[in-house]
Write a structure and sequence with these properties.
Radius of gyration: 15 Å
Largest sheet: 7 strands, mixed
Shape: globular
Strand order of the largest sheet: 1-2-3-4-5-7-6
Number of helices: 5
Structural class: alpha+beta
Distance between the termini: 30 Å
Strand content: 25-35%
Oligomer: single chain
Length: about 170
C-alpha cells in the first residue's frame, strides 16, 4: 500500500538520497563520474532539493511504502526555462519513481496530483523537460496529453543533454 503526502523539511535527506539513486539508476551510465557527481550534489544535495522543501515557491508530493520509505515524488514550482511563459504556467521539475515501483501506479498517482494541484492553484498549463532518449517518460507524458513544444539544453555537470520541452494545457 502506497501513501501520499506533501513533503516536509524533515524529509530532505531521505528525499535527496532517493532522487540521487533514481537519477543514477536511470541515467548514470550516460555521464562522466565527475559530471554525474556534480549534478547530483547541485540538484539533490543539501542546498538543492532538500532546501526547496522550505521554499513556498515549490511543492513536493511524496509516495511512501508500507515501511514509510520514499519510493517516489513529484516537484512543481515556477517555470525556470528561458523564454516568455505565462504567469499561469507551472513547471514539473521532477517526477521520479524508484525502479522497483515502476508499473505499480505510483507515477500516475503523482501525475494526477500534479494536474489537480496545478488546476487548484489556477494554473493553465504544466511545462516540463525530458531527456530526448527517455522514451518511457515521453510515452508517459504523452498519455496525459503533453506535447513537445521545443528543445532545451539540460546540463549535467559540464555535459549538455538534449531535452525536449513538453506542455500540457489544462
Amino acid at each position: 500500500m502506497i501513501a501520499y503526502r506533501d513533503a516536509v523539511p524533515a524529509d530532505g535527506a531521505e528525499l535527496g538520497a532517493m532522487a540521487k539513486r533514481s537519477f543514477t539508476d536511470t541515467f548514470g551510465t550516460l555521464y562522466r563520474p565527475e559530471d554525474l557527481a556534480a549534478f547530483l550534489e547541485q540538484a539533490f544535495g543539501e542546498k538543492g532539493l532538500p532546501a526547496q522543501l522550505s521554499d513556498p515557491a515549490f511543492t513536493v508530493r511524496v509516495a511512501m511504502d508500507e515501511a514509510g520509505k520514499i519510493v517516489g515524488f513529484a516537484k512543481i514550482g515556477p517555470v525556470a526555462f528561458p523564454g516568455d511563459w505565462p504567469a499561469s504556467a507551472i513547471e514539473l521539475y521532477q517526477l521520479y519513481v524508484r525502479g522497483d515501483q515502476h508499473g505499480a501506479g505510483v507515477g500516475p498517482a503523482l501525475m494526477d496530483w500534479v494536474i489537480e494541484a496545478a488546476r487548484a492553484d489556477g494554473r493553465t498549463e504544466v511545462i516540463l523537460s525530458v531527456y530526448v532518449d527517455n522514451h518511457r517518460a515521453h510515452r508517459f507524458y504523452q498519455r496525459y496529453g503533453f506535447v513537445e513544444i521545443g528543445r532545451y539544453v539540460f546540463m549535467v555537470g559540464e555535459q549538455p543533454d538534449d531535452d525536449r520541452i513538453m506542455r500540457l494545457v489544462l
